[in-house]
Each structure stands twice: as structure tokens, then as C-alpha cells.
């Protein structure tokens, strides 16, 4: 690692931390103005996120899918391809890998990598569809990925109530559980923390390597300008499609992690609002893998700690929304400021 | 009688005095006259008029309008004085109608509602008076370029201007449209309007203008009545008699065994972005150690030619071969791999990634080569060493290899492109306007480097709007006019000869003089 790359990693982490803490200070003032005990609220929030092994585990459990999905989002954003279809790619990846796990009887040693592959393929298919439409017909990816989100989420609603519904599930919209041998092992006894975390860390490292690779350079040039990329001998259409395949594939892996590590089955609305949070985390982390990892952690802590704060001190969860919103404003204004200083 | 406009001793510099765009320029515009401002690219024509229109503020100098000294700080002040300007790039909202565009930003008599009806009738009246054929109800996007220009002019006239500045209005027009346009200018003159016509086409001055001002390198070269001058004299004024650069041409020693034909183009045709013919059956070849200069007024197919020769634009028919290998229909990558270097026209948009640092910009064509990567991962050490070497060798002034190229001056940005493109001993170099916008020192450096590459055996296609540059560097000169090459002449031809060819006269086919 050279000096410059170390510096960029450091900068992305520092600016993420600064943005979140400034937003927290803002929230603190807000609480105080509204007449709450701000110190107590923040203590509960902190304890809620890190206070015990179990709570810390919950924070990490949230970090896993958010970080992996944000990494996928960041790869597209680096190429200035605005993939906002993380949710759809997450769902299709998760559903496809679960389908394979439920319907084929294979030894775990084969099924395990196969399910990972299918998750990536499912996400890549969903993302690649938008990528293909963009490369071939110059269709705006914001619209296509958003539309594909709806298709995926209705597809999921149908799957868990129809063909993949658990026959012994008392009519709940969910699939049967996958075999015990396929469920990711627990990392910390007595908590929900699963070994998907290790896989998430590996993905962070792989993404960092990707950003230093020939292919990463191609994607970055595409993001700079299509003219420069074409001038440099890059096949813009092919690279656009590849970028969307990888970006979608990573969201699919996030789905796999959630399904195989946490729920062990598909639930209705399994993706929640991960997609939009992944966008914020990707931007907050400066599109840098390490920055994203740290932002993912901070954001999950906010979510988990905020939930505890609401339960313990009666402060509405909307405060967490406000802090999140403030983070977004900081992220956007920082981007605007750096643009201006150019 | 007072002049409509009198500007005296106007100075304007950019980049904190580093670039002197206007240096003590005087300019007078007579009432009800058409005044042509001539000059090469970068001579200061548009800058001078932007000062008059209030887009720039002069560093020093005075402006009088109708004999009274005035201060023009912004376009609004200029409009209040009855000055209107039509820019080279149209400022119309494409989804609105002509009438809607015209009333945009003007107070309405039926406020808060728009008064399209009375605007329409006034527009029709204006178009009758000035012979501007225009349909006020037509949407702008449906109009041809000539019609859009009329829409621009009519919207300026609608605001009641007496002094109209037109920035290269004919650059986008067909000859027939240009004829109509000149008729309209005549009518405006008859109505007592004063018109400034910025152009770099000599013919237009003699076709329509009463007075002419020639600018060269930001200085006034001459100001005269058109009837008192000749094309030859104005040409001389435009390009200057004194040769600024003294470049030495040596000759490349040709290897008799090798095939020396590095670039060959046969029956080449291609379309422009609008789908119209841009290149029309071109045939030429360039040998090793030779510079073929391509002169011509901007927009006659030069840019398309460079794009075609680097694989960036599809060709309709014909054949391109580099070093004997046919490249027809191949991707840009194939051209790069065959040793075709490209110094693009627009270095900001095409030639470099402005937000990337110097070291990465130096390898945007080579990052996938073995020397810069191992198992698909970039070797940052090798990339930095390459940058340090290039910075030293090409004397690139930068705070370091990590500096973003956005922070560098134009000349140093161009040096980065030169280092990248010329550093690998290319077989063919396509150079499009390589010195445009550079200061004199950088210009000389670029020219020197191109000559060095030529002496090392590269075949160079040099496109330039600067005739002087073409004449200094080229071994042979071709002139492009409306997608064709109107003859290729030896480098020692006279400027007048080439000037005539630029206007469409083909000296190789004397019977074709009908332009």
C-alpha cells in the first residue's frame, strides 16, 4: 500500500466519522431544545448499540447486509451509473440461492459455494438487465433499476405466498427453513452474530482489490467521462454492463448473507429499506471500501442504538431518522463543496 | 456624426494577468453599418464583443455608445443601451415555441399570464420587416439550425436593439442559408441598425461588411473600410507577416526496404453526429517521417476525420489501413495497439480524466499492459515511476504525480497528453488542434515535439485552424472544405493559395470554381 492509497482510505474513514458525529451533535442540540435529557438519551443509544455482547452482535448483524450492498452500490456509483436497485438485486439473489438450497439435495460442501454463486448470479441478472438496457438503448438506469425493484418485491411477495410458501408455516408469508448444514454458523454463542460477517469482511477486501485492478481503473474512467474512456480504448458498453453485473451481484450476495446467516428462509419484505440505506452508506464512505465498512458500522449502530433508545427512554425513533437525514445533508454538502473547490 | 460604438484602449487579461486576451484595442462601429471583426482563433474577437455586451469587464479602456461614455457591467446594462448579442451556441429552450422563447424573461402586459398572442403578432411584423422567415408557433427542437438562428436574432430584435453583435453566425449555416442571412442583414442595415459580425471567413467581409477590424493575438492589426482593402491585405493582417517561430525541419532518412506508407485512406466516407455527410470520399496517404497538414475552416469535417482515424467514429464506406493493416470497422483499442497516437481536439473532454491525478492520466491507454499490472492488479510503484520520468522529461510543471490534472495549466495538461501519446514512439500521430488555447511557450514546445516525432519516423496528420502552424510544420498541405479535400499541395504553397482553397476553390480542378 503506497502513501497515496493509505491517505485516501484514511480520508474516507475520517470524513465518514466526522459527518456522523457532527450529525450526532446536531441531534444532541435538538434533544436538548425539545426538553429531553440528551445525555441520557445518547448513553442509552450508545449502550443499545455497543453495551453488551448481544447488542454489539445485533449491530454487526445489521452491518453485514448493509455494507455488502453498499459496496455494490459504490461500484456502480464510481462509474457514475446510478444503480438504486439494490433491493431488487438483493431479493432476486436471495431467492435464487434459497431456491437452489431448498430444492436440490447436494452435499453441503458443494451446495454452499453453489448457493453463493446463485446469489451473485441472481443479483447480477437483475442488475445486468438494467445494465444491458443502458448499454444497448441508453435507458436511464435510475428508472430501470427502480422499476426492477418493484418487480422483484412483488415477485418475492408471490413466491412466499405461492410456490415457495412453507406448507407447515401456518399461512405465514415465508418459505421453509433451509437445512441446518447450510445455515451459517454462529460466531458468538447466544447471539445472532453469524459467520457471514467473515464473508462480508472478505468481500470488503475483494472490493478494495477490485478498486486497484485493471477492471477498477476501467470503471473509474467510465465514471470520469465516456469520451475519455472511449478515447483510451475502453469498450464503454461492455464495461457498463460488467459494472452493473458486479454491482447487482454484490447486492445478491448481501441477500444471500441475510437469508443463509440470519433468517435461514425468505420472508416477505426481507430487504426492507436496505437499498436506500446502502446508497447513503456508500456515499458516506466516499465510495471507498474501507470507508463504507466504517460507515456501515456507524449506521447500523445508529439504527440498533436508536431502537433501544426509543424503548428505554421514550424518545421517538424519528430522532434517529433526523440524525440520518442530517448525515445525508452533510454528505451531500461535502460533495457539493468539493465540487466547488475544484 | 458620433459612432454607434466607440471602444478605446481596451485591455483584458485572464488568469491573473497570465493571458493577455486584449491589449489596447480600439474599435469603432459606424451607425447603420455592418462591421466585420476578423481574426484567427484566440485573436480576441469574441472577448472584445463580450466586453461590449457586459459579459466581461475590461481591465482598462473606455466605451462610448452613441457618443456618450457608458459603463457596462452586465448584459442588462448593454441591453438597456440597445445592444444585443447572438452567441455562437444558441441559448434557446428546445421544448418551447419560438414565441415562448422570445418572451422569456420579459415583462408581460397581461401579467401574471403570458401574452403570447401579441408577441406572435409582433414577431410576424418583425419577420416581415427584416425578411426573417420564422414561425412563432413552432417548437425550437423542430427547427433547422438556420431557423434556430433566426429565432435567436428575432428574439434579440424583439427587445428593440439598435446594435446587434453576431458571433460567427454563418459557421452553422449552409451556403443557401448564408445567402438569406446576408439579405436579412442588409435589411437590418437599411432599417438603421448597426451590426457587428464576428467571423474568420474573409469572403463574408467582402460580401456584406462596410468596415472591418482585424485582431491578431489580442492586438488591433488594422481597422479599415472594406472598399479600401483587398483579400490579400486582410489575410496578411490576420496571420501576421512576421514568423514567430523558427523551427528547424530536418529530414527523416527513409528506409528503402520498408514500406513507408504508414497511413492510407481509400474512398473514406462518414457521417457527423446529425447523420449528415461529414467526410465525402477521401483518399490520401501519409508516409513515415511526413507531416500532412490539414487546413480549413472549423467544421468542414476535420474533427470527424480525426475520430474516424482513431476508431472513435464509425465509417460509412471506404478503407483505413495503418502500416498495411486494414483497420476498417475496428475499435479504438485496435488503433491504439497498432501504434496510432491521438492528440484530441478537446483535451478536457476527451484527452484526459480531469479528476484523476497526473500519474494515472499518463497511463489511461496503457494501464492494462504488463509493465503496469500484475495478475490484473495495478502496480502503483511502476505507475509512479513512469509519472516521475514523464514529468522530468516533458518538463511538466506540477506539484507532483499525485496532483489532479484539473489543477494544471493548459500547457502542462497538453504536455501530459504529449508524454503519453508520443512517449511510445507511435507509428501514426493524429493531432487535432494541438496548440489551441496554449500560450506561446507551450505552443512552441508542442510544435517542436511534433517535429521530433516526425524526424523519428512517425507519420503525422496535423489538423489546425492556425494556417501559420500548418505552413510551418507540414511537408504537404491538404485543405478540407465541406467534407472533401480540395487538393493536396506541397508545404511551400502560398497562404493566398491555401486561403482560396479554404473557401472552396479547388486549385487542382480549376473548372470547379463555383463556390
Question: Your description of this structure?
Answer:
The complex is a heterodimer of chains A (342) and B (515). Chain A is 76% helix and 0% strand. With 342 residues, chain A is mostly helical. In chain A, α3 packs across α12, α4 crosses α11 (274-284) and α7 runs antiparallel to α10 (236-263). Chain A starts with a helix and ends with a helix. Chain B is an alpha/beta fold and 515 residues long. Chain B has two domains: 5-239, P-loop containing nucleotide triphosphate hydrolases (Rossmann fold, 3-Layer(aba) Sandwich); 261-350 and 425-512, P-loop containing nucleotide triphosphate hydrolases (Rossmann fold), CATH 3.40.50. Chain B has a six-stranded mixed sheet with strand order 6-7-8-3-9-10, sandwiched between helices. The interface between A and B is medium-sized, with 23 and 35 residues.
List the helices and strands and how they pair.
The complex is a heterodimer of chains A (about 350) and B (about 525).
Chain A: H1 3-33, H2 38-50, H3 53-78, H4 86-103, H5 108-137, H6 141-161, H7 196-211, H8 214-224, H9 226-231, H10 236-263, H11 274-284, H12 289-313, H13 318-341
Helix pairs in contact in A: 1-2, 1-12, 1-13, 2-3, 2-12, 3-7, 3-10, 3-11, 3-12, 4-5, 4-6, 4-10, 4-11, 5-6, 5-10, 7-10, 8-10, 11-12
Chain B: E1 5-14, E2 19-29, E3 34-38, H1 45-52, E4 60-65, E5 68-70, H2 75-80, E6 83-86, H3 98-103, H4 116-130, H5 145-158, E7 163-167, H6 175-190, E8 194-198, H7 202-208, E9 211-216, E10 219-225, H8 231-239, E11 261-271, E12 277-287, E13 290-295, H9 302-309, E14 317-322, E15 325-326, H10 332-337, E16 340-343, H11 347-351, H12 358-361, E17 373-374, E18 377-378, H13 380-393, H14 410-422, E19 428-432, H15 440-455, E20 459-463, H16 467-473, E21 476-481, E22 484-490, H17 495-502
Parallel strand pairs in B: 3-8, 3-9, 6-7, 7-8, 13-20, 13-21, 16-19, 19-20
Antiparallel strand pairs in B: 1-2, 1-4, 4-5, 9-10, 11-12, 11-14, 14-15, 17-18, 21-22
Amino acid at each position: 500500500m503506497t502513501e497515496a492509497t493509505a491517505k485516501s482510505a484514511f480520508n474516507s474513514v475520517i470524513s465518514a466519522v466526522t459527518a456522523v458525529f457532527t450529525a450526532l451533535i446536531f441531534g444532541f442540540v435538538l434533544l436538548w431544545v425539545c426538553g429531553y435529557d440528551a445525555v441520557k438519551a445518547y448513553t442509552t443509544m450508545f449502550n443499545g448499540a455497543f453495551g453488551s455482547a448481544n447488542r454489539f452482535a445485533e449491530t454487526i448483524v445489521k452491518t453485514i447486509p448493509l455494507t455488502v450492498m453498499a459496496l455494490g452500490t459504490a461500484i456502480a456509483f464510481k462509474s457514475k451509473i446510478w444503480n438504486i436497485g439494490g433491493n431488487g438485486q438483493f431479493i432476486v439473489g436471495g431467492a435464487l440461492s434459497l431456491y437452489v438450497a431448498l430444492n436440490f439435495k447436494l452435499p453441503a460442501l458443494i451446495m454452499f459455494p453453489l448457493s453463493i454463486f446463485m446469489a451473485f448470479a441472481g443479483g447480477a441478472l437483475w442488475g445486468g438487465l438494467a445494465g444491458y438496457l443502458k448499454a444497448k438503448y441508453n435507458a436511464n438506469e435510475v428508472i430501470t433499476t427502480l422499476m426492477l425493484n418493484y418487480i422483484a418485491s412483488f415477485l418475492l411477495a408471490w413466491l412466499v405466498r405461492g410456490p415457495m410458501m412453507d406448507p407447515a408455516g401456518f399461512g405465514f408469508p415465508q418459505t421453509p427453513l433451509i437445512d441446518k448444514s447450510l445455515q451459517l454458523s454462529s460466531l458468538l454463542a447466544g447471539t445472532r452474530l453469524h459467520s457471514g460477517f467473515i464473508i462480508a469482511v472478505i468481500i470488503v477486501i475483494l472490493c478494495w482489490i477490485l478498486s486497484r485492478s485493471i477492471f477498477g481503473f476501467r470503471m473509474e474512467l467510465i465514471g470520469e467521462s465516456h469520451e475519455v474512456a472511449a478515447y483510451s480504448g475502453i469498450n464503454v458498453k461492455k464495461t457498463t454492463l460488467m459494472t452493473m453485473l458486479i454491482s447487482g451481484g454484490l447486492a445478491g450476495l448481501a441477500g444471500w448473507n441475510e437469508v443463509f446467516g440470519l433468517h435461514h428462509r425468505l420472508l416477505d419484505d426481507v430487504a426492507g429499506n436496505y437499498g436506500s440505506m446502502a446508497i447513503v452508506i456508500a456515499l458516506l464512505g466516499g465510495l471507498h471500501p474501507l470507508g463504507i465498512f466504517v460507515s456501515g458500522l456507524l449506521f447500523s449502530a445508529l439504527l440498533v442504538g436508536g431502537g433501544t433508545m426509543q424503548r428505554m427512554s421514550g424518545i421517538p425513533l424519528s430522532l434517529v431518522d433526523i440524525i440520518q437525514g442530517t448525515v445525508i445533508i452533510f454528505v451531500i454538502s461535502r460533495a457539493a463543496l468539493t465540487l466547488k473547490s475544484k | 456624426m458620433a459612432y454607434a460604438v466607440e471602444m478605446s484602449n481596451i485591455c483584458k487579461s485572464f488568469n491573473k494577468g497570465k493571458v493577455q486576451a486584449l491589449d489596447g484595442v480600439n474599435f469603432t462601429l459606424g451607425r447603420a453599418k455592418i462591421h466585420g471583426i476578423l481574426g484567427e482563433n484566440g485573436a480576441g474577437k469574441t472577448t472584445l464583443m463580450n466586453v461590449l455586451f457586459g459579459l466581461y469587464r475590461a481591465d482598462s479602456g473606455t466605451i462610448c455608445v452613441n457618443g456618450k461614455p457608458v459603463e457596462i457591467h452586465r448584459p442588462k446594462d448593454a441591453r438597456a443601451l440597445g445592444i444585443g448579442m447572438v452567441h455562437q451556441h444558441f441559448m434557446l429552450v428546445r421544448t418551447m415555441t419560438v414565441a415562448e422563447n422570445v418572451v422569456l424573461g420579459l415583462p408581460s402586459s397581461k401579467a401574471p399570464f403570458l401574452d403570447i398572442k401579441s408577441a406572435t403578432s409582433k414577431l410576424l411584423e418583425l419577420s416581415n420587416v427584416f425578411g426573417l422567415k420564422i414561425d412563432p408557433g413552432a417548437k425550437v427542437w423542430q427547427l433547422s439550425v438556420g431557423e434556430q438562428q433566426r429565432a435567436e436574432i428575432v428574439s434579440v430584435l424583439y427587445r428593440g436593439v439598435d446594435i446587434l453583435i453576431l458571433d460567427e453566425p454563418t459557421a452553422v449555416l449552409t451556403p443557401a442559408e448564408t445567402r438569406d442571412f446576408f439579405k436579412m442583414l442588409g435589411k437590418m442595415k437599411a432599417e438603421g441598425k448597426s451590426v457587428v459580425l464576428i467571423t474568420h471567413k474573409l469572403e463574408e467581409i467582402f460580401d456584406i461588411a462596410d468596415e472591418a477590424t482585424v485582431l491578431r493575438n489580442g492586438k488591433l492589426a488594422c481597422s479599415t473600410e472594406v472598399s479600401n482593402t483587398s483579400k490579400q491585405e486582410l489575410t496578411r493582417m490576420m496571420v501576421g507577416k512576421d514568423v514567430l517561430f523558427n523551427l528547424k525541419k530536418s529530414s527523416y532518412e527513409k528506409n528503402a526496404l520498408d514500406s513507408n506508407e504508414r497511413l492510407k485512406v481509400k474512398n473514406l466516407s462518414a457521417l457527423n453526429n446529425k447523420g449528415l455527410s461529414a467526410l465525402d470520399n477521401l483518399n490520401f496517404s501519409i508516409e513515415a517521417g511526413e507531416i500532412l497538414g490539414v487546413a480549413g475552416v472549423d467544421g468542414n469535417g476535420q474533427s470527424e476525420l480525426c475520430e474516424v482515424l482513431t476508431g472513435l467514429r464509425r465509417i460509412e464506406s471506404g478503407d483505413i489501413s495503418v502500416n498495411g493493416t486494414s483497420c476498417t470497422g475496428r475499435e479504438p483499442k485496435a488503433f491504439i495497439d497498432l501504434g496510432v497516437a491521438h492528440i484530441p481536439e478537446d483535451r478536457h473532454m476527451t484527452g484526459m480524466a480531469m479528476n484523476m491525478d497526473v500519474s494515472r492520466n499518463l497511463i489511461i491507454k496503457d494501464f492494462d499492459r504488463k509493465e503496469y499490472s500484475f495478475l490484473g492488479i495495478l502496480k502503483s510503484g511502476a505507475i509512479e515511476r513512469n509519472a516521475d520520468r514523464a514529468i522530468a522529461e516533458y518538463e511538466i510543471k506540477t506539484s507532483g504525480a499525485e496532483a489532479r490534472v484539473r489543477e494544471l495549466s493548459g500547457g502542462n495538461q497538453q504536455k501530459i497528453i504529449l508524454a503519453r501519446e508520443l512517449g511510445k514512439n507511435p507509428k501514426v500521430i493524429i493531432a487535432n488542434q494541438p496548440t489551441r488555447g496554449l500560450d506561446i511557450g507551450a505552443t512552441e514546445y508542442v510544435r517542436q515535439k511534433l517535429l521530433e516525432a516526425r524526424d523519428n519516423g512517425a507519420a503525422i496528420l496535423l489538423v489546425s485552424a492556425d494556417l501559420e502552424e500548418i505552413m510551418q510544420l507540414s511537408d504537404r498541405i491538404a485543405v478540407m472544405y465541406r467534407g472533401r479535400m480540395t487538393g493536396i499541395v506541397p508545404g511551400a504553397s502560398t497562404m493566398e493559395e491555401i486561403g482560396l482553397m479554404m473557401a472552396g476553390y479547388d486549385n487542382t480542378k480549376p473548372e470547379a470554381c463555383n463556390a
